[in-house]
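go over this:
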Amino acid sequence: MGLTIASNVSALNAQNNLNRSTDMLNKSIERLSTGFKINRGADGPAALVISEKQRAQITGLQTAIENSEKASSVIQTAEGALSEISSILIKMRSLALESSNTGASDANALAANQAEISNALDTIDRISRDTQFGTKNLLDGSAGVSGSASDADVTFIKGTNNTSTGSYAVNVTTVAQRAAVTAGATTTTTAADEVLTINGVNITINAGSTKAAVVTRINEFTDQTGVFAEEVPGIRLRTTAFGGDAEITVVSDTASATTSSGFGTTLTTTSGVNIAGTINSLAATGQGNVLTSTEGASKGTMVRIGEDTTSVTTMTQTVTGAQGNANVQNDGLQFQIGPNRNQATNIAINNASSDSLGTAQSGNVFNSLAEISVTSYNNAQDALEVIDAAINEISTSRGSLGAFQSNTLESLTSSMRSTLENTVAAESIVRETDFAEEIARFTSNQILVQTGTRVLSSATQTTQSILALLG
């Protein structure tokens, strides 16, 4: 090749190689300083796409693990409160057993046990109402199946995990009735002392008692007899409870007359009637004044029908006919426990209030735990059945929560931790710098830059040899 001045091809070649080596050195410095071999799309388009997706998955897994841990805390809070309710119920069961021992317990002892049970019921309701995680209630039904009624005569009690969200028509076809007995004679003033026996409880009525005084005296024993007295205009006895298990037996030691209580010396026995009706146009089971749906979307819906207050005559029965709708909402707790869309689970926590526990036990005078009384042998026996049912419900709820925490939350969390470990390892291989390899490359590029600089310096001086030819 000839000697030229205008073009120094050797210098250009040296310069290009130096620029290439410098670029490679700068990339090595960037990879070493950032710790990543993929810093921009140009560093590896396919690797960048894979890495970004893995990064999103890693962040999602970390958040899902945190969500699962928070969910476990929620479940533990609810289960701890239910454990306390269970302890209270066991104590109440002991009191009911003690009260059943009427041969050794007088009226004062029974009243004391009833007072303690009433206090325990208040505590259960307080726990149910006040148990929260943050500001979210857990045991008042709002974290499970809750509902309301459009008619004032209907009270929504509870639903189950089988109950679907919806609005269900309530219709009463057979009214629930209280047991009721009306005296054969209208009392004016009692002429002599009288012993009136109602449901096995002896009530002494003093001579000279007016009709109003007789009614007041009978009602002093309502907690023991389960019977309420009223003027209609004669004296009428009616049970506080509705249904076929509500019963009145009454007999007096004094013949029926205007100068006595009017009930006479012949034993009178009567029972109430269980309600019948439909929920969502499907036949529902009736116990007392409670209707329970057993099929369809409304299955598990339980409502209480109120008494007919139209007149004194109708107060022994519930309202009848169409009673509006029971509006049910399944608000079970939703937990996002996976890194992707729709990877969620839910659990419903049933209402733990006393009015929702031990409901509608067949053959029982009490419709729920809230109604129990232990002021007589029969009441204490019925209370035992209701308390046992409540203990079973609470235990079942605790078991469901425990299974959910162990089998769903904790198992999935363990699985996600393993997935996170493997995903981080895979993303590291794709994106992060291998320092051993990169340092070797950096050293090589550094030597090439230094060498290239010297070569370029030499190449720029080759044209000076032309001066020697001119001299």
Observations:
- The mean pLDDT is 88.
